[in-house]
Design the sequence.
């Protein structure tokens, strides 16, 4: 009877040791998952801040593009007016010196305005490329954030499962 009691006591002690080791392993796993959740959450917050900053930059660039487009339209209108006036002066007969001077001045203005229009067109194209790239980056960032959200949710579920176990 005493030997059976000793055997049972040894089995009980071994079972308690196994249970204690399993409990510590579960605690380590839970702690590890909680640490992963915290790291992923912090990375997610950083990514969200980056997305917000990029959205602000996109809005600023779109405003700038609108302003550049307005400036371009204004310059095109001015060039059209100058060309019309130049055509009128050329159509008029006579060799008046004032008309020749005005004609030369208008030709210079037209050339300068065309150069400005060309420069603005180049700037518009460049800014539009930047906006498209930033929008693509935003979409990529949002995809990464969604992936991290689902990873966090999965880790939280694991932690809950392990804690329940």
Sequence:
């Amino acid at each position: 009877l005493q030997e059976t009691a000793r055997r049972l006591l040894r089995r009980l002690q071994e079972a308690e040791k196994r249970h204690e080791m399993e409990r510590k392993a579960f605690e380590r796993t839970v702690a590890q998952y909680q640490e992963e959740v915290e790291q992923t959450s912090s990375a997610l917050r950083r990514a969200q801040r980056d997305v917000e900053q990029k959205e602000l930059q996109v809005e600023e660039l779109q405003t700038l593009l609108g302003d550049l487009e307005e400036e371009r339209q204004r310059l095109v209108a001015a060039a059209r007016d100058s060309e019309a006036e130049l055509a009128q002066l050329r159509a008029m007969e006579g060799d008046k010196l004032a008309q020749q001077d005005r004609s030369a001045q208008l030709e210079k203005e037209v050339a300068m305005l065309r150069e400005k229009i060309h420069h603005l067109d180049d700037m518009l194209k460049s800014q539009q490329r930047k906006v498209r790239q930033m929008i693509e980056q935003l979409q990529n960032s949002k995809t990464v954030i969604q992936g991290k959200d689902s990873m966090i949710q999965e880790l939280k579920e694991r932690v809950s499962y392990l804690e329940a176990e």
About this structure: The chain has a mean pLDDT of 88. The CA atoms of residues 2 and 8 lie 10 Å apart. The chain has two helices and no strands. The radius of gyration is 37 Å.
